[in-house]
Amino acid sequence: MQKNPDQIIENAEIQWQENGAPYSNRFDDIYFSRQGGLEETEHVFIAANALTSRWQTLDAALSQQSAERQSDIPHTFTVAELGFGTGLNFLCCWRAWQQMAPSRLRLHYIACEKYPMQISALRQALSSWPELQNYSISLIDAYPDHSPGYHRLHLASQDTLSEGTPSEITPSEITPSEITPSEITLDLYYGDAAELLAAQPVRENVKVDAWFLDGFAPRVNPDMWSIELMQVLASLSRPGTTLSTYSVAGHVVRTLQACGFTVSKQPGFGQKREMLHGSFSGDAGTDHLQQKHAWLRLPEYRSHNRDAVVIGGGLAGCSTAFALAQRGYHVTVLEQSDDCASGASGNRQAVLQCRLNNAVNAGWQFNLQAFLYSARHFTQMQRKHPDIQWHPCGVLNLDTAFRSRMERCAEVRVDLYSPAVVRKVNQAEASAISGIDIDGGGNFLPLGGWLNPGNLCRAYLAHPRIRFVPAAEVQSLDYKEGRWSALSSTHQSLASADTLIIANSFAARRFSQTAELPLVPLRGQVSYVRESTTSRALGCVVCGLSYLSPSHDSLHSAGASYSKDVSDLALSEKEHRDNVSGISGHFPSGTIQQSEVTGGRVSVRAGTGDRMPIAGPVPDFSLMRAQYDSLGHRDRKHPPTAPVFH
Prior knowledge:
Largest sheet: 9 strands, mixed
Shape: globular
Number of helices: 16
Radius of gyration: 27 Å
Structural class: alpha/beta
CATH architecture of the domain at 14-160 and 182-282: 3-Layer(aba) Sandwich
Helix content: 25-40%
């Protein structure tokens, strides 16, 4: 992740030619060949990298290995592109992938773009290829045309969306490692390609398999062909990684050769006599080009079996189980209660909004991308599972609610974000957006909204590769011969797997391996308030000192209280009053009243000191304290040994 990403992304400056093709004003160059963009892509990138034959060979090899050992995780084939442009190369690659229909390979496509097209321009450009419509519709539907950083999109072609959802397939119909070929992962890197790619960790087992070098011509866009960028490409390649490009400029040839690529000229497309093909040699002569490893290196995780155990049936546990199942894992979810979402994930309505930062740094980028990913993901889940009740109605944070805080803290800098993420609104605009007269303006997040978290958990658990086990309280963990076991109070194994994920909130501290995690219980109470004639018109979530969600089944959710280091689950009348009074004053008198509170819900979630999630391998705390003791004495030297994890 970039430490200090740019906060502003400029869109492409497009001029439309007489034949309907886009032309870049910024680079004074075409986006694709006038002789035929689709045919050019097939020739220069798909065929030149021999993608179809490589996919077939790898898929057959993985199938054979699985038949013999039944222990291989489906391999991921990674294609990375410099210059996403119209997305034509990606769509052609996706179509070729689906036509080949691998059963065990996964496709991961990475595309770098500094000046992404606006959605309207992308839609117009792709309308030239109706034969790609099944793919372009899905891309346009999820495509972000704003905000820097790493955007992850999970896509399925339109001709497979109507063939049935995962919940309509029985487990017996799925082989242990079967992959749906139409579903792929697209990562869009918006910003400087060299910086974004260089920020990726260098891992021995995770490399790019094929590079598409499709930036604008070196004469007008030299940064996309610099030796610094090609060095980064080399560091992310393995021996045998291929590349192709339309450019045969001498500078490009020499730069690639200097970075360890063996290149050759091949017949070009159309009127272009030649194109370039290359393969990474990976010889020792390029070792000096590799990135330096950070002193804190996370282990490269390897699993011999395609199984996992998740402890915790809330949003964290169920969403993690779903993500693993989508990757071919068989997952067992253990929940101590009788149903999923019985804790903090069980409220009637959960609100999604972005935590805004005043500094453009890694935290800013994490919160922004997590918010954007969630909004896309919930929209996709809603189509398959309407019961999750995702309402992207927007979230309005009122200025009047934060006057006391603004005396102590700087006002949120909305200018650090795209208007698609958040924008300032005045009192009249706030009232129009919410549907009710409001006493002031604020910040409006149009992509935010609310959903039913319990139903979302149940939608996740409907995946055929997930087994849900209720009333399974895990008391301890045991690790033997490469497998983890979750043990009951009588030391009986509730489930075992190579991979174990702990997602049971602050209760994670009951296990010896995670007892030292800096987690604290946070009590929160939500109040359910009967709608009034006026409040029924509320069209978005409104946040003051407390929040109010739009009415659902004639009830609003108002909340929530925040009590650190408190785990009492009894409803509090005082907290009901605080929840209502924290928002009612922003509306006309009588809109929301304390007398209309019909009940509520108390839950306890986990909190961290920096309000960031804790994710990743669990460290051996005692060994790490000994290894890194010198850092407590302001020792600037790197510790002599790598950290140890469970």
